[in-house]
Amino acid sequence: MPPAFSEEERSRITEQLIDTATRLFSAQGLRKTSLEELTAPAGIAKSSLYAFFDSKEDLYLEAMLRQNEQVRRRVIDEGLNRGTDTRDALRRFLRATVAELDGNPLYRRLMSHPQEMAAVAAKLTPERMAAAERGPMADLTRFLSTRVLGTHVLGTHGEGDPEVLLGVLRAVLLTPLHAEHLGAVYPAVMDRLIDAVTEGITSC
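RE: above sequence
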């Protein structure tokens, strides 16, 4: 049976576990990260992890939720919501998100390895997973539904579906994952791509 921990110990260990999880999951992913790697820096036994989190997947989700709070502030509050119009808002969102992908290893991992989120989802309760669905992409989906589709709908082949528009923006955000293939022109490519896409899906 895991030992009892004081409130101070629980707080310290929880933060250490989340910090370690963020670093390891970013670098090597869910499957390759062992319980021992997660718990050793906190000075607890592998079995003691379950006194803090229901599973390794639950710890992954908590690390992701911590990222969501920070990412939302940067890409939604300081990006999307500061746009002077719809097009400017989307440009700000995309540029802030590209910067996040360039500088935030866990967020980049989540974007480049969607199967890991599926593995996490399979081990969690619907209530826990509901928390993950309140991330920045949920804010973006609401924006697309109210600000983009309310003013301009492209074509007749599903382009007016917010999920299609969300897919277009996600496609742009896959480009940073291949920045090394673009070399020195990567920043200019991103600028042109963001301008082209945002002009294509907005009317103002």
